[in-house]
Every structure is written in C-alpha cells, then in structure tokens.
Amino acid sequence: METVMKKIVLAGPPRSGKSCMREGLKQAIRAIPGNAVYPYVITACPDGEGAWFQETVNNDPELAAACKAAYKAKFTPEFVKRVADSVRSCSLELTLVDIGGITSVENEAICAGATHIVILAGDPSKVPEWREFAKKVGLAVVAEIHSDYHGSEDNVEGIAQDGILRGSVHYLERGEPVSDRPMIQALAKHLLAI
User: Cα–Cα distances in Å, from 126 out to 11, 20, 137?
Assistant: First the structure.
C-alpha cells in the first residue's frame, strides 16, 4: 500500500499561538495509542522560533529569548528557496509546516509543496484572508480554529460536512502544556484520519 504524505501548514495571523499549538499537536499525535506516525516539523519562518523553542522556554526562558534574538532574521530569497525545497521534497507521512503570520508571496512559495492547511486565528475576522491564501496556493482547509487567549475552556464544534474541523482552543501561552486540550486532541485525530 502506498504511503499518503500529508504536508499540513499551520497558518494564521501573528500572535495566534501557532507555535504553541504546533508543540502541543506534535505531543498529542505521538501520544495517540497505536499511532506509529511521527509528526515531522518544518519551521518556515525566520523569526527565531525553531521546533526547539517551546521546549527551551519550558526549561530556560532566558536562554530561549537569547537564542531567538540571535536567530531572528528576515525572509531572504535563499531562506524561502531552502524551506520551499524542504517542504516539497519531504517524503514523510505527516509534516507540519509552521509559517509566519502574513499572507505573503514568500509564504505562498513555501506552501506550494504542501497539501493541507490549519487556520488558527485570535481574530476570527482574519479567517477569510487565510481561506483565500489556501485557495490561491491550492491547499485543502482541514481546520479553522479560534485561538481564544482569554478563554477558560476549548469548544470543539466537530467536523462539518465540508470536512473542516471547527472550534476554539483557549490560552495558548508559551510554557503551558496544551497537548491534552480537547481541541488539540480533536485536531490530532483529524489530521491522522484525513
């Protein structure tokens, strides 16, 4: 049987909690009983927050801040090409691509080799812009999640007839464990099922 490669972009406006969700999602997928799929992460934004960042924040916030400042950069043609090539050529079963919070030509190039998109937005009025981005790049929207920073609980609306998981996740904050949140759990199961 042929392995289906899913390259899922984690997208949405800045400061929506994408990197926090990415770490919790990775842990939630790995913890699903009987699951043998390891979620590989490609950090596709030159903001200094690699896949290592969340764990470093948990262990040494000052070191994490210093490293982020040292690694922070702007998009360059070389960076975009390198990351776009990585996304396109990755042949693992499940790849999460964490992009920056702007619907830019750089992000379009990076996402051209992906297959699906999860939209996470603190401001729900920004979701249509990201839907349009997905359509332009040719990505299937698999989830639209409201990042409710001041909320106290998640709301999982479920998977609609259009195949999109909708709901909200609360208080995505660095250093907070989020892998057991109902919305993160639902998203993990949904991504494995598509």
Answer: 11, 19, 17
